[in-house]
Amino acid sequence: MRFDPSGLYSAFDRMRENAAARGKDLATIQAKDFLNETKKAGREIAPTPQELVDVAKKSGWRLKRKPGTTPGQELQRRIRAIGTFARGWKIARVDNQKFRIRIWLEDLANQSGMVDDKRGVSRKAQKASGGRFKTRLDKLATSITSKF
């Protein structure tokens, strides 16, 4: 009796296609999760209006500002700008290649890179969302191989 591997090949092909489709879904879900965690961590580090007023009072209202701007106007601008770092995050680009999915996140707020380096917002978000990714990946692998 001869073994016909065509059924096995078609099952492997179906499993590969299923993994590719669901892998893209999982990547976008994980990117959105990381994005939300980054925004959440950005909101946590934002100063309150009272903290900004206290800093202004402590410095004797000598705030760095544009020429022609009063310290009160500068303080109001800083209060309005609270949360700009957290709101500015977005998914910039998604690149799907054969065995790789790359997702770029960016924040267009001024000096966002400096704030992220100083406060470690993206590292905190990675730690928070990284554990959930492992469980999602295990669940995906189980669902793909169970249909084999």
Word description of this protein:
The chain is mostly helical. Helices cover 66% and strands 10% of the residues. It has two domains: 24-45 and 88-148, no CATH class; 47-82, no CATH class. It has six helices and two strands. It has a two-stranded antiparallel sheet with strand order 1-2. β1 and β2 form a beta hairpin. The longest helix is centred in the N-terminal third of the chain and has 40 residues, at 6-45. 8% of the residues are buried. The mean pLDDT is 82.
Summarize, please.
By secondary structure, the chain is mostly helical. It is built from six helices and two strands, in the order ααααββαα.
Question: What is the topology?
Answer:
Layout: H1 6-45, H2 49-58, H3 71-80, H4 84-87, E1 89-96, E2 101-107, H5 112-119, H6 121-146
Antiparallel strand pairs: 1-2
Helix pairs in contact: 1-6, 2-3
Residues in helix, %:
55-70%
Q: What does the largest sheet look like?
A: 2 strands, antiparallel
| Assembly context of the chains | single chain
By secondary-structure content and strand pairing, the structural class works out as: mainly alpha
Give start-end ranges of low-pLDDT stretches: none
